[in-house]
User: What shape does this take?
Amino acid sequence: MKKIELTGLNRVLSNARKVVILGHKNPDGDAIGSTMGLNFHLKKKNINSHVIMPNDYPDFLKWLPGNDQVMIFERNKSECTDLLKEADLIFTLDFNDLSRVGDDMAKILENLDIDFGLIDHHRQPGDYATYQMTDDQKSSTSEMVYDFIDYFEETDLIDEAIATNLYAGILTDTGSFKYASTTAHTHRIIAQLIDHGAPNNLIHKNIFDVNSLNKLKLLGLALTQLKTVPKHKVAYIYLTRKNLEDHQFKKGDTEGFVNYALSIKNVELAAIFIEDLYLDYIKISLRSKNDFDVNILARESFNGGGHKNAAGGRFDQSLKECIDFFKNTITQYPELKCA
Ligand code: 5GP
Ligand code: MN
Assistant: This one.
């Protein structure tokens, strides 16, 4: 599904005294790249804009230009709350439901009487935005921010900082240009971003070649704890709180682990279950190959959502209960059953 409703936005932007750009909770490369890319672009147009993230994000994204300007709501509630209340326009990027920023911030947003802008590639967008560009066929929100800039015929404003952020967002959300959502259009945009100064080789190195030894050892352990359910073309990994503590877990360390489970021949659905370090719930990431829709599985069974081939959610009981529930749930999908 695709929707573009941007009429009048440029006028609103040029009259706005303050614009805020938000990403979702537990921001990933696309949330960071798209919000910072748009922020630099608005600043080039002399618009007073700010980026707020609900909480912190992994170190491998902290070298990106503009990182020092990002405000973290969880760390600085009063200043962020003031900014939100003073804004004339708030963009929400890489998510489409206000609950994705977390309860405290969502409450503030719901009580504001202002216009929202939405740029996003997830399914089933909420109806809170006056101005929107949504398309669930797009590889990433960062790709859509390029489209957004192009829509207003402003690609000549793209500089190295904008290009680097958008490149990083597309790179991370496409699994290095590998996922099915990667199109010729994605590659054309990537070429444009390199032309506008994105240091492509450096971006890859800064994102992927910065592993800690602890992270690699945690991956080793995760792989020894990988289980398959061949009858249902499923593989899953679990990590306990103790596993994380033993490896001095840092935010982002488990990113990508679930893909190892999905890489097994004949596996159609992969999952990773991770005990939260502090709270009593299990964070779940789901991935699929081909037609199995993990967005539906995440929405129906794990209080989450996402895309057809990549989604996430949570489970509010023990790890064992979560895995038992998952193993029982997969038996209810005939398409996962081996012929
Ligand atoms: P990940 O498994 O990497 O955390 O997330 C994969 C995809 O699912 C991302 O596009 C992310 O936005 C989405 N996602 C992850 N967790 C949740 C969740 O709790 N709720 C919703 N609606 N989407 C999620
Ligand atoms: Mn995204």
